[in-house]
Design a protein that fits this description.
By secondary structure, this protein is of the alpha/beta class. The protein is built from 15 helices and 18 strands. Strands 7, 8, 9, 10, 11, 12, 13, 14, 15, 16, 17 and 18 form a 12-stranded mixed sheet that branches. A 6-stranded parallel sheet has the order 3-2-1-4-5-6, with helices on both faces. Helix 14 runs antiparallel to helix 15. The structure holds L-homoserine.
């Protein structure tokens, strides 16, 4: 069986897909009996024409040449961003083509519309490469775990932020130096906002929410905080307390609500997620009846990600691609109502009564302290006071921090980092 493909976007992933398709064509044929032919390649940069020539494929700078070609069965969209990717996908579906995409920003923004359209036209949308690059987490959840109720997800879904936090700890360096290193290595984007401020993780969590719970959350319903406020001090104090700081995507299904949030999190140092180093990704699932599962691998990079794109192409081409899941309605919990434990760091003048004042505020908001440490070492003439709380309501923690920051002996804004005792 020969299936004709149109591929739009020859960035890092697009080029790697072409290379892997060529390199592994006989293996793909052996395993699937599907013969993939790249009919047309589209990129805005005319210099990429030679890549198409190497594969005996046609080249165009106009996506319409693929979208309107009746011979093309599958359109592979690898340009990223919202437009023109969205229009390309919508027009292609309307023209009877299935889609393969790695576009997490677009799916988190318009996934509902795209999947409804795919259902209407009886076409498939492959999106394995949109979450965790090479890790086949999409097929695992939708097919391998079809019988499972996913109670909790804890994911390290962004390689750049994991690399920055890892390097800060290993090399005892500040955030900006570690970020510069990530950028120099080509890991972080030139404008690293999407990675560093948690937006990329947020996009991926929205996709996992659809897969696991049938819910496409609105952007504002998923609390999102990045790692730019995490200091080396916090990383080192967390280690002393046997915790490691990771940027986590968290989902928790309760009886009649769903928690969805992205933020830096203290997790026990001995948990396998704490060992995820460099730019690797990992997803931990707590399910019934399969129990606890952990998936680990490369979450970015052209060559690893090409494996997921090609697996979607082959799945759709051979007619083995899973059906589009239904949607459900579950209330998403407001972050202020979340109950958890917290790491609090205040920077205070070292004089009598500071701890008493801070404790008074915490007690008045029903926040119980599990441990407290005051460091003798001064940072800019201030001493760090580090507290770990028992379970408390987030709204009360926020109120407490506002009041603590107003105390005359507290000189810089206090830090709060959520804890998950996995
Ligand atoms: N920017 C992403 C990361 C890679 O750093 O993990 C693609 O999802």
């Amino acid at each position: 069986m020969i299936k004709k493909i149109g591929l739009i976007g020859l960035g890092t992933v697009g080029e790697a897909v072409l290379m892997s398709l060529k390199k592994y064509s006989s293996l793909i044929l052996q395993k699937s009996s599907v013969n993939i032919e790249i009919k047309t390649i589209c990129d805005a940069n005319k210099d990429k024409r030679k890549l198409a020539k190497n594969l005996s494929a046609a080249f165009t700078t106009n996506p319409k040449d693929l979208i309107n070609d009746p011979e093309i069965d599958i359109v592979v969209e690898l340009i990223g961003g919202i437009e023109p990717a969205k229009s390309i996908i919508i027009e292609s579906l309307k023209n009877g083509k299935s889609i393969v995409t790695a576009n997490k920003a677009l799916l988190s923004d318009s996934g509902k519309q795209i999947f409804n359209l795919a259902k209407k036209y009886n076409k498939s949308v492959g999106f394995e490469a949109s979450v965790c690059g090479a890790i086949p987490i999409i097929k695992t959840i939708s097919e391998g775990l079809v019988t499972c109720d996913v109670k909790k997800i804890y994911g390290i879904l962004n390689g750049t932020t994991n690399y920055v936090l890892f390097k800060m700890l290993k090399e005892n360096i500040d955030f900006n130096i570690a970020l510069k290193e990530a950028q120099d290595k080509g890991l972080a984007e030139k404008n690293p906002f999407l990675d560093i401020e948690g937006k990329d993780t947020h996009h991926k969590l929205c996709i996992l929410s659809y897969l696991c719970y049938g819910v496409w959350p609105s952007s504002k319903s998923v609390y999102t905080e990045g790692i730019s406020k995490i200091t080396l001090l916090d990383i080192l104090y967390a280690e002393e307390l046997n915790y490691r700081i990771k940027l986590l995507a968290i989902a928790k299904k309760e009886k009649d609500s769903l928690e969805l949030r992205v933020h830096p999190t203290l997790i026990p140092i001995e948990h396998p997620l704490s060992q995820v180093s460099l730019a690797y990704n990992a997803v931990y699932l707590d399910t019934q009846p399969a129990g606890e599962l952990l998936f680990y691998g490369e979450g970015a990079g052209g060559t690893p990600t090409s494996s997921s794109v090609i697996s979607d192409i082959v799945g759709i081409a051979s007619g083995n691609y899973g059906s589009i899941r239904g949607e459900s309605k579950i209330k998403i919990k407001n972050i202020k109502d979340v109950v958890g434990r917290y790491y609090i760091r205040c920077m205070a003048q070292d004089r009598p009564g500071v701890l008493a004042e801070v404790s008074k505020i915490l007690a008045s908001l029903n926040i119980s302290v599990a441990s407290v440490t005051q460091k003798e070492k001064k940072e800019n003439k201030l001493v760090p006071i580090i507290m770990i709380t028992h379970k408390a309501v987030e709204d009360n923690i926020r109120k407490a921090i506002t009041r603590i920051n107003r105390l005359s002996m507290i000189k810089t804004p206090s830090q709060i980092i959520r804890i998950e005792d996995l």
